[in-house]
Amino acid sequence: MSDKSIPRKAVVLLSGGLDSTTVLAMALAEGFDCYCLSFSYGQRQSIELESAVQIAINQPVKQHKIAEIDLRIFGGSALTDDIEVPKSRSTLQMEDGIPVTYVPARNTIFLSYALAWADVLGARHIFIGVNALDYSGYPDCRPEFIAAFEALANLATKMGVEDEEGIRICAPLLHMSKAEIIRRGMRLGVDYSMTSSCYDPDGEGSACGECDACVLRRKGFEGAGVADPTRYQT
Fold first, then answer.
1. Does residue 229 form part of some domain?
2. 127 forms bridges with which residues in the sheet?
3. DSSP letters along the chain, please?
4. In this predicted structure, what is the pLDDT of residue 135?
5. CA dist., res. 206 & res. 47, Å (int)
6. Pseudo-torsion of CA 173, 176, 177, 178, nearest 10°?
7. Residue 134 pLDDT > 70
8. From CA 71, how far away is CA 77, in angstroms rounded?
9. Is position 169 within any domain?
10. How many domains does the chain have?
11. What CATH number is associated with residue 91?
12. Which string of DSSP letters, residue by residue, matches 181-193?
């Protein structure tokens, strides 16, 4: 039996976007001591990472680390390579195949870093804001991927082997629509004006309003009946 008096620690992947910020609020509401992990991975824009820093400062997190890696050495994505970001696509187009904004193996890499920190902290829970219903088409946002990584985590770590409860990969947004995510976040007091989702913002951080992430974000706020606080270029 685990000692209930021991604080429940969780590593939370925090990108600075709408989904990960909601997940952080959910983990805090559940009483976890949250250790946030963000990445400077060679992404084409830094505004989302700047948002993550401000969000962590304004939330009662225990610690916030930024891991520096460079996925530009591989490229292969509109977020890390000289590839144009798709604009003004319909949801039907978004459903058609894996988009060029997919960063190869990104969630596998991020979760591996989170797993290493969790093993050091003695944290049994890792939270990630993946979502399988937002038409992203990303293979590493599927329930099968989360289940497979959790199985790996419990085979490959000290905690997984020695702790009877093992490690859990928590993806509470997995089967929620963007509108449902926003409504949940609003109930938890999330300030979405601090978040950034755009794949192609301008130099001042204003969202393009036309990339897949912006289209889904806008529709999410409309569906939730909540005013969109995003600063768009047009």
1. no
2. 12, 170
3. ---TTSPPEEEEE--SSHHHHHHHHHHHHTT-EEEEEEEE-S-S--HHHHHHHHHHHTTT-SEEEEEE--GGGT--STTTSS-PPPBS--HHHHTSS--TT--TTHHHHHHHHHHHHHHHHT--EEE----SSSS---GGGSHHHHHHHHHHHHHHSHHHHH-TT--EEE-TTTT--HHHHHHHHHHTT--GGG----SS--TT--B-S-BHHHHHHHHHHHHHT------B--
4. 58
5. 9
6. -30
7. no
8. 9
9. yes
10. 1
11. 3.40.50.620
12. HHHHHHHTT--GG
Indicate the pTM of the whole model. Answer: 0.94
> Which residue type does 86 have?
P
Long-range contacts of 159-162 (CB under 8 A, 24+ apart): 159/118, 159/119, 159/122, 159/124
Please give the residue range of the domain that contains residue 49. 9-224
pLDDT per position as a tens digit, 176-189? 999 999 999 999 99
Q: Confirm if 130 and 174 have CB atoms less than 8 A apart.
A: yes
In a domain, 3, yes or no: no
For 1, 7, 41, 126, 174, the CA distances from 4, given in Å and listed in that order, are 9, 8, 37, 19, 28
Residue keyed to tokens 């409504």: 183
Which amino acid makes up residue 33?
D
Q: Are the C-beta atoms of residues 208 and 202 closer than 8 Å to each other?
A: yes
Residue reference for tokens 């449902």: 180
Would 142 be classed as within a structural domain?
Answer: yes
- Tokens representing 72 are 């530009």
What is the signed CA dihedral for 222, 215, 190, 12, rounded to 10 degrees?
Answer: 140
Q: What angle do CA 17, 228, 175 make, to 5 degrees?
A: 55
